[in-house]
Amino acid sequence: MVKNGMRNYDCHECSQLNELKVSTQFMNMIAGWHLSGDTIMIEQMPIMGGYVGGVEETAICDVASTLSSFVAFNCDIHLDGPIHIRWGNTTNRQSLQVAAHAAAALDANTDVLLANQYYTLAGPCTEMCFLETAAQAITDTVSGRELLSGVASAKGVSKDRVGGLDARMMGEASSAVCGMSIESINRILDNILYRYEPNYSTAPIGKTFQEIYDLDTILPTAEYLETYDRALNVISSCGLDF
Questions:
Q1: CATH number for the domain including 162?
Q2: Cα–Cα distances in angstroms (integers) from residue 133 to residues 1, 140, 226, in the given order
Q3: Which of 123, 132, 137, 162 could bridge to 205 as Cys pair (CB 3.0-4.6 Å)?
Q4: 171 near 133, Cβ under 8 Å?
Q5: For position 3, what pLDDT does the model report?
Q6: Does 3 fall in a domain?
Q7: Is there a domain that residue 199 lies in?
């Protein structure tokens, strides 16, 4: 009996290449996981504004990438994440449109398991990071995704800039919109996006994990909690009832 390492029922994640490409290394890894009876999650992040073009074309590529994960590679879960070529985040308006339309189409016509990953421009312990997270969680939930994977704050490229309250915001926003109409959701999303879209060029990098947590108790600092509460109030003013 294996007492360490990954278990069969843990998600074994492997990334497709952009766009709709594959490598022998990828195929070998997938084959080995299948032989071991592992749970396979295939990731693909189509680039909005890249080789495939704008929102409509990227959404088509997104659907095709998702279908190929199941049809060609027999995965258990597809992990999405359309990302903007200029901003490098998944929370911009265009990426949210791509993710929403792709998920809604797949949810209406298949029974596959859909996930989405979160890359915010702003870093942890900032109001902008919480607003970005809420906007994507709202979008993913009403579009029919089963799994939310985040949050990679500060575009996921800055060391130690990640925090648990960001994931909490993801869960709270998702729960709050269950059962709401698309019309109501679109109004709320517009209100939230207008709050952070002007700040793309000056997005705050936030603070490190060591700065926003007590390292002995692993509890968030008062500043982190206060920033979270302020963000909740802002989102509530945009029309979402927590």
A1: 3.20.20.460
A2: 40, 11, 17
A3: 123
A4: no
A5: 66
A6: no
A7: yes
CA end-to-end distance (rounded Å), the chain = 45
Which residue, chain included where needed, has tokens 């109004």? 187
Does 182 map to a domain?
yes
> What is the domain count for the chain?
1
Alpha helices in 9-126 (DSSP H): 24-36, 55-71, 93-109
Q: Are 206 and 120 in contact (CB under 8 A)?
A: no
Identify whether 1 is part of a domain.
no
The closest alpha carbon to 82, from 64, 108, 109, belongs to 64
Model pTM score: 0.94
Torsion of CA 144, 149, 154, 160, to 10 degrees: 170
Domain containing residue 69: 11-237
- Tokens matching residue 52: 């495939």
Place of tokens 């702003």: 122
* Residue of 117, 95, 109 whose CA lies nearest to 15: 117
Cβ atoms of 64 and 34 within 8 Å: the answer is no
Cα dihedral 79, 85, 90, 95 sign: negative
Chunk the chain into consecutive blocks of 10 residues (it has 242) and report each block's average pLDDT, rounded to whole numbers.
76 92 92 94 95 96 96 95 96 97 97 97 98 98 95 95 96 95 95 97 97 96 98 96 86
